[in-house]
Each structure stands twice: as structure tokens, then as C-alpha cells.
Amino acid sequence: MPIDRRRFIGASLAAGAAAVAPRVLARPQRLPAAPAPGPALAPVPAAAARPPLLEEALAALDTHSHRLVQRDRIGLVDFAAHSREPRFHLVDVAGGRIERTWLVAHGSGSDPAATGMLQRFSNLPGSNASSRGAYLTANTYYGKHGRSQRMIGLDPDNDHALDRAIVIHGAPYVDPALIDAQGRIGRSQGCFAVELSEIAEVMERLGEGRMIYAGKAA
């Protein structure tokens, strides 16, 4: 029987393709090389991540939550530090981390010898001393120190703050140049005095209705 030439050639090509196909499908695919690992990030030191007094402050935040409009950040003042050190911290509550830090004065009645270290707290009118405890930031106004912000004392240790006119304000005696000259900044009459160049940012970041907690870490 004669062989159809066209059918023979077609059958031969199909058989050849079938023999090659498995080898093509089985060939491993070349993947792109993985990128080289970057440098490891240094961990944030625990001391910098969670400032002293934070646990006390967070407990106060819960205690006074019904008085606070904003709970996302708080002011934290650690009067255990010398006045030449930035000790007024703005803390992100969710992360427990310091966002910003400023110099802040303590009262002359808390440091009669002008050592730069707070010796005692007082809530008494006329004491010119700093008071410990939780404060609520209130309205801003313009007074003898320029733009200032009133504070309401929320604890028995500072509940005379409004009557004593304990406020946040800028002052020329809170200046890094004074640290170079005398080893400390000046003292207030119990107010939270900060640098004149920083007062606008302090009040903007704190706003009205947030908590400031002042104390002295052990």
C-alpha cells in the first residue's frame, strides 16, 4: 500500500514535538537574584523610648480621663533632672515615646539656694514653688509674659494652680546661654516657663484639653 507523503511528514513532526515538549516543560525557571540585605537598624534604647514618670502619668491619664478632651499626647515634666537639662517632654501616648523636649524652669520656692535642682514641691499660695501632679491645659491669653496658657490643677497637690496663676509662658531667664554662663537656667514663681523662642510650639503641640504631669522620678 503506498504511503501518503504528506501524512508521513505530519506524523513525524508530531512525534518529534512530543519528544521535545517534556524536556522544555521540565527545564527549571531562573529566578531573579534576591536583593542584598540592608544594614540592620539599631534598636531604640529603652530609656529613651519610655521616659521616667511615664507609668505615673498614664495612671493619672486614666484617673482624669473624664476631664480631658485629648488623650493622644501628654506633657511630662521630670523635676528630678537639673534645670540645665531638657526635662519637659511631649510624649506620644500610644507609643510611649518622646516626640519633643524643652527646657523648663521650676519655682524659686522649690529651690531657694538656686542650685538648679528642685528641692521641694508646694501648693500653697505665695510659696513661689512648683507643684506636683496632673494639670489640664486651659485657654491661652496675653499677659505680662506675652502669650501664655492657663492650667487647672487636677490633684490635691496642685488644685490651687488656677488661683496661684500657675501657667505656661516664655521667659528670657530660660535660655541655653545662661547654662553656659552659670550652669543653670533661671527660676519662675512656680510657672512652667520655657524659652521665648519655643513657647509658640509648646502651646501649639499641647493645645487645650490635654494633660501635663509633673513629678520627680525616684
Label the overall shape.
globular
What is the architecture at the second tier of CATH?
Answer: Beta Barrel
In helices, the fraction of residues equals 10-25%
Strand order of the largest sheet: 3-2-1-8-4-5-6-7
Radius of gyration: 34 Å
Taking the sheet with the most strands, its summary is:
8 strands, mixed
The third-level CATH topology is L,D-transpeptidase catalytic domain-like
Question: Which characteristics define this entry?
Answer:
218 residues; alpha+beta; L,D-transpeptidase catalytic domain-like; eight-stranded mixed sheet; 23% helix; globular; disordered N terminus
What does this structure look like?
There is one protein chain. The chain is α+β, with helices and mostly antiparallel strands. The chain has one domain (46-215): Beta Barrel (L,D-transpeptidase catalytic domain-like), CATH 2.40.440.10. 23% of the residues lie in helices and 23% in strands. The chain has helices spanning 5-26, 46-49, 54-63, 176-182, 199-206; strands at 73-78, 88-92, 97-102, 133-143, 146-153, 167-171, 192-195, 211-215. An 8-stranded mixed β-sheet has the order 3-2-1-8-4-5-6-7. The longest helix is centred in the N-terminal third of the chain and has 22 residues, at 5-26.
